[in-house]
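stuck on this:

***
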Amino acid sequence: MLRPTPRDVHVSRASYLAGAMAFAAWLPFLRTPLASDAAGFLALGQQWEHGSSLYGDHWVDRPPLLIWIFRAAARLGPIGLGDDGVSAPAVMVLGGLASAAVVLLAGLLAAHLAAPGTRWTTRAVPVLAAALLSSPLLGMPETNGELLAAPFVLLGVVALVAALSMPAGRRPVLLAAGAGAAAMAAALVKQNVIDVFVFAAVLMILCRGGVAGLGRAAGSFAAGSVVVLAAALASAAERGTSPADLWQAVVVFRLRAGEVIDTSASANTSHRMLLLTLAFLASGAALTLGTVALLNARDAIRDRPRGAPLALAGLALAGWELVGVVAGGSYWLHYLTGLVPGIVVLACLVRPTTAVRRVLSTCLGLALIATATAWTEQLINPANPAIALDAKIAHYLRDHAAPGDGVVVAFGRPDIVVGSGLSSPYEHLWSLPVRVLDPELTELRAVLTGPDAPRWVVVSGASLATWGVDASGVQDYFVEHYREQAAYDDFHIWRRIEDRRDASPGP
């Protein structure tokens, strides 16, 4: 039986202050160049209409709500190309708002779950959330799927906990429906973020017979999720994105991608995994997660035979989030953002005895120090060498391209396409879909030999070949019909030969 929700749930002043600080942490980075993924999502959002691929004329393995969000961001502010990369302040504001929302929801959840008369939890938990979300060690200031999904995760948890803590009636039914809607919204931002579904399944199973109206709440939860899913699929279908194609992109593709990464990935993947592990440890997230997980496991064991339903559900939630980080395959720092909701839930459930408060205060202090250090370093040295290199390539294309020219980047780096202001006739702006869906470059050859062949091709390395890709069927045609014009580090810019005068090498 869940503890009844207090009649008056008050979010602490610390929550509002921490939320404001979480938002303010993004403000110095409004003009910071976007990560390549964010720039690519902007490009997809801008051109998402009926086209030749999943989202307009391009393809990405992401659900539609994420593209909707970036489409809205593209309409809210300008997109520019500076010396360091593509900038879009609206996207950074969006990241700040998502962070603040997570912090405020963490404060609300703490107010629901904290023991009567206990103020430590309601003050410490939102501060902890703000510290983690403001840390460059967890990917900040990158606006990504994990961050944009996190508010929906905590909203679903808060609504479900409130629903199951009330006597049977209309209000808990509505709250359960809202929890289901939030659960589905999170998954429609990033498909592996089914955190609320995991939390709800474990909690409802353990609460059987102990919560009045559980059946109605479960039905309402399911109904809320189905309504949101139906609305999202219908809206996407209006723009030419079918449910069947989305299933292939967000589910089937990810299974195939995992196999390709396991069998063909370069040494860079292992290097990123090491960096991710070090960031997890240095940020304080590992210590905090391990501590609150052990404390909740201890409490669940003490409450045998059934265990504490909320503690076990929280452990399942955090466990699923860890699976998401490990199974992601590419090991980018922003994967760690996906752990924040689980840490928050488990921290809210800890029984704050004097000894426990001391331990958690140490964890919080270490997280704050790590965030302050990393945030200051990010502020002093905001430039990303890889993104700055992409900007140089984009500037070259802007300076030398003619109206109507197209460009293909082989492979990935959609920020180059966005920064250049050119369109790409090749549907794959990211590298992993090329390796999974076009490993022999059959589609690319059709583009290069077709009527809409791009005038410009940017190649990473000495040829079109890369890990997981067999370029033998197109490389000879490429070098016969294109000539290298410029090189930036390991990137080479090629231009299509249009007549004999173009057959000579570029400068």
Q: What stands out?
A: Strands lie at 80-81, 86-87, 407-410, 456-460, 482-488, 491-496.
